[in-house]
């Protein structure tokens, strides 16, 4: 009843919402869900599915981001000069949806896995499809970016300013909701296992849902077609500005001789072809664009949330009561934005004003840069703590070996020739020991009354496990190449089983088969999700089964589990920790996300507000294009640093970015101190008044001439 009374009380056309707006808002929600849902997975997809090295994956991620912020210029020109906003949105949305579908198809493991071993047989097919999909997505999302919000604004009449403002609030709420929900949902979908022949992380589903949402976005937008107010293309002011600047430079070069008098501003050389108002407006725009020069450095740091910071989260403990996927940590930014924007606007800024501090927009942007720089210092400190937990793998010329005594008697193992000796207690291991590969030739095992010499032919840069046990007649042993050269990715765990029974057993864990294991043999490592919950381990000891619940493996660990015996149908097992689980909690990333979000609020929100306040009414799109261009250049900076940097330590790269932004922040503060704020409305009013006077003068001259003619 209350809702009906509210609807009945809607007064006039000036406050009524056009029905077409709701199609645009739903379209934006679906499109943002599609984009952010896909982008949240991209870095880990490139490293874990395509198997690219982290630096190269970072380069591709930021190349894609840069393209997404370069193509809006193309979209704006298409919409304003040729196709109009409606057709531009439709055509580019089709390209966008096709790109999402191609990316999803490219992530299907079974597409080229002809031998059913779980690994694509022709990875180049997947790379080609993925890169084609990303290019089409960049063209689509970037191309429609400047069109959708402007098209929504076109649906209102001039006297509907308040209603238009409400629309933009709902529009940006749709953006935030779409990005927040998708960044939570798609990593969960990815974590599920799917596949026809071999179970893998379900990237096809995780990319397929954003593809479906993009198709839904297009369909919803088309449904409202007959309701839309479609403004015809009226020419792109960006092109006019470029032509004006180009002509001024060209004309100045032609008249570089001293015989031509200097003009007050170099743009005044365009006065022979362009009117004074356009030149004055272009001057205002260029004045703001000059201040944009240092801004890309902020975006170089900000956009690393989806690349470097996500990779950092893969080496952390994601147990928040429920397991958090590394790529879900990006939701911290969206959540903090929703919470902090009202707090900053209603509490922080008014307090600063009460303290009589002149906190101008440019000063806010400077402080925003400082916050972003501090965020990367915080990220560096977290990275230092993570690095301390990393296992040390063998370097060139080195080999690592661990000993596992599965027998009931203690043992002494001598590394030959006369390197060292180690005592190994029953059912215990030594952990990995490092040796020079060329010097370690054999092992001599002494246990009880028995001894055995184990010859070694080891490869450098590899880890080995020697499992042995004493029995009444001899010492049995098995040397295993572990084939693990790094910590498990994405917080997963590597689990394998070794059979300590005197007969063959069949081992499963949560119904995943590890195969039939003869005595003292070892299964291959298998990826197990870092869910921090126990798993059901089952051994088939014909004619009966023994089961036990595993320990919680945590995140990023590797274990060898010895299947030792069975007591009252309960399986006896022993854990040997090959790689320790992640101990630095993902919650330690929250301070860096908090600092970066503070920086975003003061820099990004204020920057857009400042740009619009300083731009002439018909030139706001030029500044929007300039702003998006700074984001693209920021991503290009990351590409250059990731490609050219010789820094081995990730914490040092974080410090480098923090130092660069701090230096740029000082430069920006100096530039901002010389900036004089203007009121574009006053300048436009002045030109409008001058135009009226000229029109009146022309009218008076015409009347005088007409009067003179009548006298003749």
UniProtKB/TrEMBL annotation:
Biased composition (Acidic residues): 700-712
Catalysed reactions listed for this entry: L-alanyl-L-leucyl-L-alanine(out) + H(+)(out) = L-alanyl-L-leucyl-L-alanine(in) + H(+)(in); glycyl-L-proline(out) + H(+)(out) = glycyl-L-proline(in) + H(+)(in); L-phenylalanyl-L-leucine(out) + H(+)(out) = L-phenylalanyl-L-leucine(in) + H(+)(in); carnosine(out) + H(+)(out) = carnosine(in) + H(+)(in)
Pfam families to which the protein is assigned, alphabetical: PTR2
Annotated transmembrane regions: 56-77, 89-108, 123-144, 165-185, 205-224, 284-302, 334-352, 364-384, 622-642, 654-678
A GO BP annotation: protein transport
Keywords, comma-separated and alphabetical: Cell membrane, Glycoprotein, Membrane, Peptide transport, Protein transport, Symport, Transmembrane, Transmembrane helix, Transport
Topology of this chain in the membrane: Multi-pass membrane protein
Entry's Gene Ontology molecular function annotations: oligopeptide transmembrane transporter activity; symporter activity
Compartmental location: Apical cell membrane
Subunit structure: Interacts (via extracellular domain region) with trypsin.
Annotated family: Belongs to the major facilitator superfamily. Proton-dependent oligopeptide transporter (POT/PTR) (TC 2.A.17) family.
UniProt-recorded name of the protein: Solute carrier family 15 member 1
Upper lineage: Eukaryota, Metazoa, Chordata, Craniata, Vertebrata
């Amino acid at each position: 009843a209350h809702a009906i009374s509210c609807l009945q009380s809607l007064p006039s056309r000036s406050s009524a919402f056009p029905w077409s707006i709701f199609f645009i808002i739903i379209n934006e929600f679906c499109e943002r869900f599609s984009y952010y849902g896909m982008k949240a997975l991209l870095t880990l997809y490139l490293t874990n599915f395509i198997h690219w090295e982290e630096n190269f994956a970072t380069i591709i991620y930021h190349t894609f981001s840069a393209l997404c912020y370069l193509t809006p210029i193309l979209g704006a020109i298409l919409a304003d000069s040729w196709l109009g906003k409606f057709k531009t949105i439709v055509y580019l949305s089709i390209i966008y949806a096709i790109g999402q579908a191609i990316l999803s198809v490219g992530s299907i493991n079974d597409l080229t896995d002809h031998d059913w071993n779980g690994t694509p047989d022709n990875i180049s097919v997947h790379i080609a499809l993925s890169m084609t999909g990303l290019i089409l997505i960049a063209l689509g999302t970037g191309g429609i970016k400047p069109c959708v919000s402007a098209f929504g604004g076109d649906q209102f009449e001039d006297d509907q300013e308040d209603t238009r403002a409400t629309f933009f609030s709902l529009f940006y709420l749709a953006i935030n909701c779409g990005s927040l929900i998708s960044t939570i949902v798609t990593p969960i979908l990815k974590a599920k296992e799917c596949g026809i022949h071999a179970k893998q992380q379900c990237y096809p589903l995780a990319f397929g849902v954003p593809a479906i949402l993009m198709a839904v976005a297009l369909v919803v937008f088309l449904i409202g077609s007959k309701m839309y107010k479609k403004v015809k293309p009226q020419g792109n002011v960006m092109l006019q500005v470029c032509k004006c600047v180009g002509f001024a430079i060209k004309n100045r070069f032609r008249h570089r001789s001293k015989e031509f008098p200097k003009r007050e501003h170099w743009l005044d050389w365009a006065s022979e072809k362009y009117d004074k108002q356009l030149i004055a407006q272009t001057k205002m725009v260029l004045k703001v664009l000059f201040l944009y020069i240092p801004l890309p450095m902020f975006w170089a740091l900000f956009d690393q949330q989806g690349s470097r910071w996500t990779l950092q989260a893969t080496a952390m403990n994601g147990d928040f009561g429920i397991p958090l996927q590394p790529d879900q940590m990006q939701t911290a930014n969206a959540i903090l934005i929703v919470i902090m924007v009202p707090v900053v606007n209603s509490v922080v800024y008014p307090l600063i004003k009460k303290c009589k501090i002149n906190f101008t927009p440019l000063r806010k942007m400077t402080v925003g840069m400082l916050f972003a720089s501090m965020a990367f210092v915080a990220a560096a400190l977290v990275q230092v703590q993570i690095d301390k937990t990393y296992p040390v793998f063998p370097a060139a010329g080195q080999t690592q070996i661990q000993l596992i005594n599965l027998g009931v008697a203690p043992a002494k193992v001598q590394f030959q020739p006369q390197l060292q000796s180690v005592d190994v207690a029953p059912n215990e291991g030594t952990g990995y020991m490092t040796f020079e590969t060329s010097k370690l030739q054999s092992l001599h095992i002494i246990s009880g009354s028995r001894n055995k010499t184990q010859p070694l032919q080891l490869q450098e840069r590899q880890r080995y496990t020697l499992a042995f046990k004493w029995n009444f007649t001899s010492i049995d042993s098995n040397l295993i190449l572990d084939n693990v050269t790094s910590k498990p990715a994405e917080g997963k765990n590597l689990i394998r089983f070794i059979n300590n029974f005197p007969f063959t057993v069949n081992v499963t864990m949560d119904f995943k088969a590890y195969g039939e294991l003869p005595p003292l043999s070892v299964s291959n490592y298998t990826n197990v999700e870092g869910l921090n919950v126990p798993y059901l381990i089952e051994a088939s000891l014909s004619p009966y089964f023994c089961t036990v619940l595993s320990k919680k493996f945590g995140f990023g660990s590797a274990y060898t589990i010895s299947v030792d015996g069975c007591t009252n149908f309960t399986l006896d097992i022993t854990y040997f920790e090959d790689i320790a689980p992640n101990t630095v909690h993902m919650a330690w990333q929250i301070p860096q996300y908090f600092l970066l979000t503070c920086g975003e609020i003061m820099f990004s929100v204020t920057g857009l507000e400042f740009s619009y306040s300083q731009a002439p009414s018909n030139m706001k799109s030029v500044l929007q294009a300039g702003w998006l261009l700074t984001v693209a250049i920021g991503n290009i900076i990351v590409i250059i640093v990731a490609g050219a940097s010789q820094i081995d330590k990730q914490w040092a790269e974080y410090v480098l970015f923090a130092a660069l932004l701090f230096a740029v922040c000082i430069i920006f503060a100096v530039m901002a101190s010389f900036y004089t704020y203007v009121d574009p409305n006053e300048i436009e009013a002045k030109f409008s008044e001058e135009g009226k006077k000229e029109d009146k003068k022309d009218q008076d001259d015409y009347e005088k001439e007409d009067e003179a003619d009548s006298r003749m």
